[in-house]
Structures are given as structure tokens and as C-alpha cells.
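Q: What does the predicted 3D structure of intramembrane prenyl-peptidase Rce1 look like?
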Amino acid sequence: MPDTIDLRKWSIDSLRNLVIAPFTEELIYRSSLIPYLLQLGYKPVHVVFVAPVFFGFAHVHHAYNQIKQGHRMKEVLLVTAFQFTYTSLFGAYATYACLVWGDVLGVVFIHSFCNFMGLPSFTFMQRGDRVYEKRWIVMVAFIVGLVGFISLFWIFEMK
């Protein structure tokens, strides 16, 4: 995460990643797909696991750009599988949040925040990193945060 947010450094990519994509993707995958799946008879708990698959597949097109850039097929497949997995996991979380809150606007903000933060970095585990000496503290903090995040799911009920 950057130390400060400098709006002068915003680009078209920033606008796409932080505003347009979260809004349009949540409009499609949460506010449109969730009601449709519920109308088809899916239970909310099943919608949490079905809707994200569509969201994950919507990001598979990035493989085309990697192929055009000359990446090896094995690398493209691994990166695409990883991206499909984490976008599907985020999609499950976003679907769950949308079902709990009954509103998509908060999910748009969550999506934008996640795009801004990116995936967690584990460079602190490499020698030479500025927090390498405290890597175990950082790792414990990651684990405690993840366990806390997951355990909070069960205090909310889906609508």
C-alpha cells in the first residue's frame, strides 16, 4: 500500500481498476446475478459459491494478453489458475457481503479497496527486506488477521 495517495498520479488504469471495474462488475455479478440465481431456486448459501465462478471466469481473458506478450503456456496457465482462484474467493466474499447487507454499494467500495491494496506481499520473508528480522511477527499478524476475518463471517446472517 502506498504511504500517501497522490491523485495527480492517477491514470486511466487507476480509474478503470478503482472506479469503473468495481462498479460495473458488482452491478453485473452481484446486483444482477444474485437475484437471478435466487429466482432460479438457489439457496443463498449456494449462491455464495455459484456466482463467484462466473466472476472468476470473467477474469480469465487476461491470459490472452499474457500469451500475446510471449509468456510460456505453462506460466500463463498457472497465473490464470491463480487469478481465477483469488477472484473467485473474492467473489464469494462479495456475494456473501451483498446477501448479508442486502445492498451492492458497500460491495463496490470493498471491491475498489481490494483492487487498491492488491494481493498481500510476502517479500518480508526475503533476506534484505526491511522487516525481515521481524518476519515471524508479521506472519503471525497475517494469520491472526485471516483467522479473525474468517471467524467474523459466522456472526452475520444472510438475508
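A (community wiki): The C-alpha cells above were generated from the sequence. Residues 120-159 form one domain. The mean pLDDT is 91.
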